[in-house]
Amino acid sequence: MGEPHPIAPEHARAICEEIGERLRHALRGDYADLPPRLQELMNALALQDHEAPSAAPVMARALVVAA
User: Fold this and answer.
1) Is residue 1 over pLDDT 70?
2) CA–CA separation, 15 vs 8, rounded Å?
3) N or C: less crowded end of the chain, CB within 10 Å?
4) If 0-12 CB within 10 Å is exposed, 13-18 middle and 19+ buried, where does residue 17 land?
5) pTM (2 d.p.)
6) What is the rounded CA–CA span in Å between residue 34 and residue 62?
7) Is the pLDDT confidence value at 65 over 60?
8) What is the C-alpha separation between 10 and 56, in angstroms, rounded?
9) CA-CA distance, 5 to 9, in Å (whole number)?
10) Cβ neighbours of 46 (radius 10 Å)
């Protein structure tokens, strides 16, 4: 296996969320004009976004431990 990724998991998740938000804003939910494969990928991304656990509880626990 390769070396561990240099970005902390919470930062990687924040980057993914920002990319998703920008895609949602750029596409504005109108998938009718997208090619079928891109439409499938956008639907899969939306499904993963809804199934993903929130990063907020992890961050809250980190703040409590640090205090």
Assistant:
1) no
2) 11
3) N
4) middle
5) 0.40
6) 41
7) no
8) 10
9) 9
10) 15
